[in-house]
Amino acid sequence: MIALPPEPLRAALLAWFDRAGRDLPWRRGPEGGRDPYRAWVAEILLQQTQVARGLGYYERFLAAFPTVQALAAAPLEDVLKAWEGCGYYARARNLHRAAAQVAAQGAFPGSYEGWLALPGVGPYTAAALSSFTLGAPHAVNDGNVRRVLARLYGERAPSPAWVQARADALLDPARPGAWNEAVMDLGATVCTPKAPRCAPCPLAQWCAARASGEPTAYPAPKVRAPVQAVQAVAALIGSRERAHLERREGTLLGGLMGLPAEALLAGESPEAALARLCARLGATPGPLLGQVRHGMTHRQVTLHVYRAQAELPLQPVAQAALARLDQKALALEAARQEGLFPA
DNA sequence: AAATCGGGGGG
DNA sequence: CCCCCAGATTT
């Protein structure tokens, strides 16, 4: 392993950060002494979610739940509604659970280990929050850090342990929170995945990937599981404004509401699956409204949406937290209020 | 170590 | 179309 000189490298990156770092709403307050509630909500929201996308959700979420006490007291349905469309809904469920723990103990964690003990807080988030809110010397390891360090050291296949060791060694003990934010800002705005801008990079003089002439070769792309094609049927009972909805159980979209649905069994036709679904609901199958397709990283879902009739409770769709897939399905029923779509 | 969990931005 | 994103949890 090449030993990089830590002090000049730290000074160069922190000087760049102080000049060119991003101005983000969760960065208000003193360095190393940020408001733990605002910092925590941001870190959970930003897990596997790009900053530009998280911004809108952040403001709306804080407006709906201004304090951890308000979050703890709110029904989970309201929390999921605020999270609607953002994905990885276990984050919202864990955030709600953790809020109850924090409210019960009357204070936010005062250490890395304390943060790590909260549901939904793993090694990255505990390092981020302990450095941002407590000034604790813990180095974050996220996608940006992985890419920046892989390029800096010229490592094509950086393991999590390799990244953490390098991040720990480089962390500036005088400004751990600022250092963590600086590496992430560099990765997000300069050392980007496909088009790194080496010219303005404050670390260029030490960077092995830049010296190689092919910075984007570091790190090598991760091998990903193939996308699996899935088919299912759903029943629309009622209208797109007031429909019969079910709560999804399990890990996939768990906690969200959606149209009653059944996955097609191997070799099964959509009509047969619809018959199974209607038998379960005590409903009468109706005509096909259409199909919607929806991609979910490792799944490509084709949903066949049918109308159905039944004496089942309807609820206002606008107040329920729905996945994008169900919103697409509901959109198949054209709004037909008098005057909305004149003939 | 590998699989699973959403949805969208950007080349 | 493909890779990636302020990862965590479960297997």
TrEMBL record:
Under the GO molecular function aspect, what terms does this record hold? purine-specific mismatch base pair DNA N-glycosylase activity
Listed transmembrane segments: none
Say if the entry is tagged with keyword Metal-binding: yes
Q: Catalysed reaction per UniProt?
A: Hydrolyzes free adenine bases from 7,8-dihydro-8-oxoguanine:adenine mismatched double-stranded DNA, leaving an apurinic site
Instruction: Enumerate the Pfam families for this protein.
Output: HHH (PF00633), HhH-GPD (PF00730), NUDIX_4 (PF14815)
Query: Is NADP found in the keyword set?
Result: no
What start-end ranges are recorded for coiled-coil regions in this protein?
A: none
Class in the EC hierarchy, top level: hydrolase
Signal sequence range: none
Listed EC numbers: 3.2.2.31
Q: What InterPro entries does the record point to?
A: A/G_AdeGlyc_MutY, DNA_glycosylase, HhH-GPD_domain, HhH_base_excis_C, HhH_motif, MIG/MutY, MutY_C, NUDIX_hydrolase-like_dom_sf
The record's listing under Gene3D superfamilies reads: Helix-hairpin-Helix base-excision DNA repair enzymes (C-terminal) (1.10.1670.10), Hypothetical protein, domain 2 (1.10.340.30), Nucleoside Triphosphate Pyrophosphohydrolase (3.90.79.10)
Q: Which UniProt keywords apply?
A: 4Fe-4S, DNA damage, DNA repair, Glycosidase, Hydrolase, Iron, Iron-sulfur, Metal-binding
Query: Where do the HhH-GPD domain residues begin and end?
Result: 45-189
Per its UniProt record, the required cofactor names are: [4Fe-4S] cluster
Family membership:
Belongs to the Nth/MutY family.
Identify this protein by name: Adenine DNA glycosylase
Q: Which organism is it from?
A: Deinococcus multiflagellatus
User: In the record, what lineage is assigned to the organism producing the protein?
Assistant: Bacteria, Thermotogati, Deinococcota, Deinococci, Deinococcales
What is the name of the gene encoding this protein? Answer: mutY
